[in-house]
Write a structure and sequence with these properties.
eight-stranded mixed beta sheet; 12 strands; alpha/beta; 19 helices; single chain; binds S-adenosylmethionine; about 450 residues; Rossmann fold; globular
Length: about 450
């Protein structure tokens, strides 16, 4: 471990967390020297950095990171590096992620001893984040999950929350899952953990192709029985317990706010924001896959009562289906001249596609305006490029332009050639996905 920060103690209000208590084994290394060396080279253009090489290999099953296979997870090496770098965390008490997904940033913040807040629109992802970062008393969880199973085996009443589920399960597995759900709904001590165990079991028993993140029908589980459901529940419960029990009880709190980060009420207060680092990997422009990839779980957990998940997509930043309101947006709603002309060129080839990106950038303008309005001190933005109608849209540049137009100064830019997002790593038209960009911005006046 390099010297920086070894003996620091940080005050989190109600808990005084010293590094020896708060920093979990394996995450105690600091990268301040490496960052200082990069800073010396930085002259405005992105510096090539491989975070996988810099941080080194991390165990596949580290803490609760792999609790759930959320499609667009962030490469955890990136927040690990940033949150272990003095120049990035200087003056920071709270880490805030307005697009928290399955909670990678919140967990990394906890492991480094920071309190954290995240906002997430997809209720399945929000559930995963809450469980991933829950206060770690695990005693009582294993008997609770065993009791749910025992009760479900006896139970005759079946809760069947969504017609969306019909074609993805055998009648026997649907009935067994519905009985587990009935027992959870009837009241259990740790409802989040029980619901996540159900979501994982339902995922495992569905007639879907496990290699594809969104549900695609396959012959898998075509003859699944109630017995298969019971043993999948037991196995998922065991895995959950094993992961949850790796977390130390000394972690600072992580708060997951379920909702829309375009709303300022979701953000840290002005007082908190002055010592807040916003660290996030925002959704892409046409990111409907986050919702589709969790649609069966959303069905089981009651988020798709009419059998549809379109309402979840409509409140998402980045969506494939435009609402009537989105269609009223115009190129003029995009602030930046350069971006307007890029989207104008897209519109000549595919006006719907252009409209999707107009809506996306208008939404991102609102999100970053909230950063400025609340007074967030520093921003670490992880974003990339998109292939749109045969060309490359430099989403990362355009997002950086929005942030700087709001009164932030870019103090660092790095480019990692390896994409960390599992769903989005695929090659399109034979073109490998290009790099992930990591930009750091300071609120002006503070530098
Ligand atoms: C790239 S993913 C983040 C992945 C996350 N870093 C992780 O490791 O799991 C972007 C997330 O933003 C969420 N999102 C989209 N629109 C949102 C909104 N308006 N408010 C809050 N979250 C939103 C999506 O549901 C998705 O989970």
């Amino acid at each position: 471990m390099s010297g920086a920060g070894q003996s620091r103690a940080r005050d989190f209000g109600h808990v005084d967390v010293s590094d020896s208590l708060s920093v979990a084994p394996g995450v105690s290394r600091h990268y301040s020297r490496e960052y200082a060396a990069l800073k010396q080279q930085f002259s405005g253009a992105p510096l090539d950095v491989s975070f996988r090489q810099l941080v080194g290999p991390l165990p596949a099953n580290e803490y609760t990171h792999s609790l759930y296979p959320y499609p667009a997870r962030l490469l955890r090496h990136i927040p690990r590096f940033l949150l272990s770098t003095d120049a990035v965390v200087e003056g920071i008490v709270t880490v805030f992620d307005p697009f928290v997904g399955s909670g990678t940033v919140l967990l990394e913040a906890q492991l480094r001893g920071f309190r954290s807040i995240g906002v997430e629109q997809n209720p399945v992802a929000a559930l995963v984040s809450r469980v991933k970062t829950r206060p770690s008393d695990v005693s009582g969880l294993a008997p609770m999950l065993a009791d749910v199973l025992k009760a479900a085996k006896r139970r005759r009443r079946v809760t069947y929350p969504s017609p969306l589920l019909d074609r993805w399960y055998t009648p026997a597995s649907r009935s067994a899952l519905g009985r587990l759900l009935t027992c959870i709904t009837d009241g259990v001590a740790d409802v989040d953990v029980a619901r996540l165990c159900l979501a994982l079991t339902a995922r495992r028993l569905s007639m879907t192709d496990p290699r594809i993140p969104v549900p695609v029908r396959s012959a898998r589980n075509a003859d699944a029985s109630a017995e298969d459901v019971w043993s999948a529940w037991q196995s998922e419960a065991r895995h959950l317990m094993a992961k949850l029990s790796t977390l130390s009880a000394q972690r600072p709190p992580a708060e997951v706010r379920e909702g829309d980060s375009r709303n300022l009420e979701m953000w840290p207060t002005e007082t908190e924001a002055a010592s807040t680092l916003l660290l996030t990997s925002p959704p892409y422009g046409a990111a409907q896959k986050y919702v589709r990839s969790t649609s069966l779980e959303a069905g089981w957990l009651g988020y798709a009562p009419e059998g549809r998940t379109a309402h979840l997509e409509h409140s998402n930043v980045g969506r494939e289906h435009l609402s009537p309101k989105d269609r009223t947006l115009e190129l003029g709603d995009v602030w930046d001249d350069g971006l307007r002309s890029v989207l104008g060129a897209v519109a000549t080839k595919d006006s719907r596609r252009a409209q999707i990106y107009v809506a996306y950038f208008a939404d991102m303008q609102r999100v970053f305006s909230n950063a400025r309005a609340s007074g967030v001190r520093r921003i670490a933005l992880i974003s990339g490029t998109n292939n749109v109608v045969g060309g490359v849209l430099h989403t990362n540049h355009h997002l950086a332009d929005i942030v700087t137009s709001l009164g932030y100064r870019r103090s660092m830019s790095m480019r990692d050639p390896i994409r960390g997002r599992t769903l989005l790593t695929t090659r399109r038209n034979g073109v490998p996905s290009p790099a992930e960009f990591i930009d750091i911005f300071e609120r002006t006046g503070d530098a």
